[in-house]
Specification:
Length: 173
């Protein structure tokens, strides 16, 4: 039987790598699935991805943990959003992030605050499409047995809780 764990991370360098390393090694997965497109892992085009996902990929390699990507390549930013507006939204999010440790964003309340701000720049239809594609990718990658750890952005945790009701969310209350 497969045991599935989800851990939500904060992008933009807010996930503590030492803590993430401890969590990954404590869970000791046979398979680590990360929010990077598998095609980009295959062609080593990963520099555009969140720092903690690249860290997890390298940690998996160092510890002989099988690692694959499950991300969607759908761009979820609304058309016409300038990088200036995007940076303003990120700055607002950073204020909220600095009030909590990164793990707390696996819970509804602080995560919902970030999501509310994100909706100003996110195309919700594309966001939903991306989540469905990630779910499909995960379903095709998860084996029938073994321990699987899935790292995803905290914004996706509510969706995955609904879609994977038998999974464990150790950082969520």
């Amino acid at each position: 039987m497969t045991e599935i764990f989800f851990i939500g991370t904060l992008h933009c360098g807010f996930t503590n790598e030492n803590e993430l390393k401890r969590i990954i090694l404590d869970i000791n997965p046979k398979l680590l699935l990360i929010e990077i497109c598998q095609e980009d892992i295959k062609h080593n085009k990963i520099s555009k991805y969140p720092k903690e996902m690249i860290f997890a990929l390298n940690l998996a390699k160092e510890n002989n943990i099988s690692c694959k990507g499950f991300d969607s390549n759908i761009n979820t930013i609304k058309k016409g959003i300038s990088s200036e507006n995007e940076n303003k939204i990120i700055a607002l999010q950073e204020k909220i992030i600095k009030q909590h440790s990164w793990e707390k964003f696996n819970n509804f309340e602080p995560n919902e605050k970030l999501t509310k701000i994100s909706k100003k720049i996110i195309d919700l239809e594309k966001w939903n499409q991306g989540e469905l594609e990630m779910k499909s990718n995960l379903k095709s990658l998860i084996p029938d047995k073994d321990t699987v750890l899935i790292l995803t952005g905290t914004g996706h945790i509510p969706f995955f809780k609904k879609e994977f009701p038998n999974a464990k969310f150790p950082l969520s209350s």
